[in-house]
Amino acid sequence: ITDKINALPDGANYFSLEFFPPKTSMGFANLTSRLERMSQALRPLFVTVTWGAGGSTATKSLELAEICQRQLGLTTCLHLTCTNMSRSLIDDALEQAKVLGIRNILALRGDAPRSEEYREEGQLPEEDSNKDFTWAIDLVRYIRKQHGNYFCIGVAAYPEGHSDESHPEHQDPKIDLPYLVEKTAAGADFIMTQLFFDVEAYDGFEKMLREHESGVFKSIPIIPGMLPVQSYQILRRVTKLSHARLPEDMLARLDAVKGDDELVKRVGVKVLSEVIEHIKKRPNPGPRGFHFYTLNLEKSVSHILEDCHLIPQPLLDEDEDEAIDVTPAIN
Ligand code: FAD
């Protein structure tokens, strides 16, 4: 991923798309054709495939990663969590990623898994032998120790805080900061953020990182997470789960149309496009990227990418190149 980012021309923007593994073979078939359409029409720099906490989707995540990397030829980043996972599951996932030609891992801690996910996958976790992995940094270190620089490693970051009493962890970007410094210094190549709508919070967060005295964030790609609005209900649920604040004016615009799903999507496209245009204007040490939590859906993200002119020109294939090369000779 970082090789591809570094190869982009000055001032270029790029984007990535995130997908989760469907539960059924019908779901896989549908997603595969959607991925094929999206990759041809939108040309993401890379795609990412989520990993169920505790390895609950291990088989299906690897299956989807294989479709993306091998079948569709997309640069693929596999998410990998490390808590509630046996070490052998982590080793297997990394080995299988290698076999599939995957060179990118998003190294995460993960949350506690829900037992029904295990039951669906038929994979109960082994007695956890894995006391070595408490935080994401442990996974970053482990991957570097076992695999050197073979993998390009991404880590997660959170632009907004929350003090939700019902949540086991109080979250605060300033309290997280020393851990993010450590995690980055341990070998991360890029940072990908939690979704957000509050651009002021994001501006402050990015500035805090770029100016940090450690210097570890000076030039590392920081890729902001974007959630296209698919429906009013999904938006409210996901923002609650991820503790993303919806600024008053955005909420008012969406509230005003909440009875009409099509209008909600349309306003959502405008809202996200404004967020992106705002971030595009921020100074950045390299090309500016955006990561889209697609929820496996196609339309809203396509509209946003079009509106924000994020879709790169298609590369000429070899035949076309040759056709252009011979033109002067014919003339
Ligand atoms: P960490 O970096 O370990 O941080 C977790 C918390 O612990 C932070 O509050 C941090 O400040 C604190 N902390 C870190 N180190 C220490 C320390 N040494 N001592 C004390 N406190 C410490 N989850 C999934 O299950 N599957 C996915 O595919 C997935 N994809 C994601 C993609 C993105 C882009 C993001 C932002 C999140 C994703 N998550 C996913 C969610 C993630 O697993 C959870 O948010 C998890 O709770 C934290 O993971 P982390 O990697 O940020 O953890």
Automatic annotation (TrEMBL):
Which cofactor is essential here?
Answer: FAD
Pathway annotation from the record: One-carbon metabolism; tetrahydrofolate interconversion
Presence of the UniProt keyword NADP in the record: yes
| Coiled-coil annotated residue ranges, if any | none
The GO annotation for biological process reads: methionine biosynthetic process; tetrahydrofolate interconversion
- Single GO cellular component annotation? cytosol
Any one GO MF term held by the record is: FAD binding
Record has Oxidoreductase as a keyword: yes
Q: Which residues form the signal peptide?
A: none
Superkingdom, natural source: Eukaryota
Q: Which UniProt keywords apply?
A: FAD, Flavoprotein, NADP, Oxidoreductase
Into which family does the record put it? Belongs to the methylenetetrahydrofolate reductase family.
> What is the name listed in the Swiss-Prot or TrEMBL entry for this protein?
Methylenetetrahydrofolate reductase-like protein
- Organism equals Lentithecium fluviatile CBS 122367
**Included stretch of the parent chain:** 4 to 334 of 656
